[in-house]
Amino acid sequence: MQKNVKTKVDMGGVSETLLLTVYFRAKESAREDSIITDTFAEDWVGQMAYNFEKFDKDRLSVVGVAIRTEVFDEIVSRFLKENPDGIIVNIGAGLCTRFQRIDNGTVTWFELDVPEALELRKKFVSPSPPRYRYIEKSAFDYTWLDDVAGAAGEKKDNVLILAEGVLMYFEESEVKELFRQIKTHFPKAEVVTDTMPKFSTKMSIKHHKSVSQTKARFKWGLGKTSELYGWGLGIDLIKEYSLFNRHTKRFGFISLLRFVPWGRRLARLIHFRFDDSKTAERVN
Fold first, then answer.
1. Beta partners for 274?
2. Is 75 helix (H, G, I), strand (E, B) or coil?
């Protein structure tokens, strides 16, 4: 890339949200008291010709994205310690830098996203098979599961699926089917995703200072996490996180929502595994 020549970016819909998340990580990383350090995001944002300033009023989302990144990083790091040669699939990878920041040198990692998103990603970092690969498909084109299964071989029990900042833009029926397909191919897989409450999908888009600047729309919301048990997929909750429990001074008064059940669900992350014995227990 020629010096001072920036990469032009023209995206719409859900894909455009990858720009606000990489921007928020870059903004947070540049702070002296930053929650996360992401010099890759800082560098990539600096190389793009895009009106990032339209997201600048959304202070709370900068904190939320930073804490979400922190929690995802912690979960992935623990998984890598327990499964150093495991398989990780990053759904809706966009401009995520997690592999670049915490790769352990032995994991097999797939960045999964639609072609336009990965074409932008290639401007900054290229895949390096066999250990670091790109899959240019929608998460709902389930042939990606065959791609991963082929690479996993006998390691199908050591699979972690990441879905960060993506599933809330799709219908509940689509999310259910995605989970069902994942379980069919990887019966013991772990999944980490963030969720939002159902009422937020109906009212928050016009109040969400950053997402409202894109054409993306919230669709899937989750009430109590236990509702997932009713999906009949043998979901076994490992841990639920409320982002409001961390870095409360940065959130300000809104962090007090952590003391209210529905408030904790406003910024929630869930980590679960598939386990058919759990379905049998609940039926009996």
1. 235
2. helix
How far apart are the C-alpha atoms of 27 and 25, rounded to whole Å?
Answer: 5
Cα dihedral 69, 174, 171, 13, rounded to 10, equals 60
- Cα–Cα nearest to 96, from 140, 132, 49, 131: 132
Query: What six digits make up the tokens of 13?
Result: 């819909």
First CA to last CA across the chain, in angstroms? 62
Tell me how far apart the alpha carbons of residues 193 and 207 are, in angstroms, rounded to a whole number.
23
Alpha carbon distance 73, 156 (integer Å): 22
At 157, is the pLDDT very low, low, confident or very high (cuts 50, 70, 90)? Answer: confident
Q: Which structure tokens are listed for 136?
A: 């240019």
Mean pLDDT of 91-105: 97
CB neighbour class for 113 (10 Å; exposed up to 12, middle 13-18, buried from 19):
buried
Q: What is the enclosing helix (H) or strand (E) of 180?
A: helix 172-185
Instruction: Provide the b/e sequence for 240-252 (b: ≥16 CB within 10 Å).
Output: bbbbbebbeebbe
Q: Quick one: pLDDT band at residue 153, thresholds 50, 70, 90?
A: confident
Sign of the CA dihedral running 93, 97, 214, 67: positive
Determine if the pTM surpasses 0.85.
yes
